[in-house]
């Protein structure tokens, strides 16, 4: 797994590189001090003029081009997955980065093993979700109240089958395909098919976007 570390603090970049390069299946192929440098590195990889990148660890507050816009450009290219690395989990910047296409976020105070696992999870095509934090962010941005009433039936849910609705709720809760399969008593491939159909019907890029849509629309409530 090839990783690009983007952060305007050299000490943070050095620390992340040391943690990730110590793993036999992960290689840090580059560093970026600005959002513009991160986007340029990913684009270079896409044209074959630079090292290919699987995952970008992206700080949200950087000069020249902030991490939100950089995330949007990287995600739109489809060349690499993005994990936002942030100091505070309940940060509007984090939520905007997730909406821009990040596959999840990671706190800078996370333990080394958590950082390694985050890269592996996202590189494998899963989303790195923290439902409690995402719920708080979504509620703050969408004006959701704290009333724990029954889930509503918003427009995005009306074209879904019962199985797809169940999968959507579990995705919003942060469960992986394997965990959803165990919960529903079906095989992982069946869950994978349901998730693919769900994303297509919701017209969202990935599981993170599906989870955000669930909270913002009121389909899933606290």
From TrEMBL:
Residues 2-123 form the Response regulatory domain. Residues 145-157 have a biased composition (Low complexity). Residues 153-218 form the HTH luxR-type domain. The modification 4-aspartylphosphate is found at residue 59. SMART domains: HTH_LUXR (SM00421), REC (SM00448). GO terms for biological process: phosphorelay signal transduction system; regulation of DNA-templated transcription. Residues 140-160 are annotated as: Disordered. Pfam families: GerE, Response_reg. SUPFAM superfamilies: C-terminal effector domain of the bipartite response regulators, CheY-like. One of its GO terms (molecular function) is DNA binding. Keywords: DNA-binding, Phosphoprotein, Transcription, Transcription regulation. This is DNA-binding response regulator. It comes from Mangrovactinospora gilvigrisea.
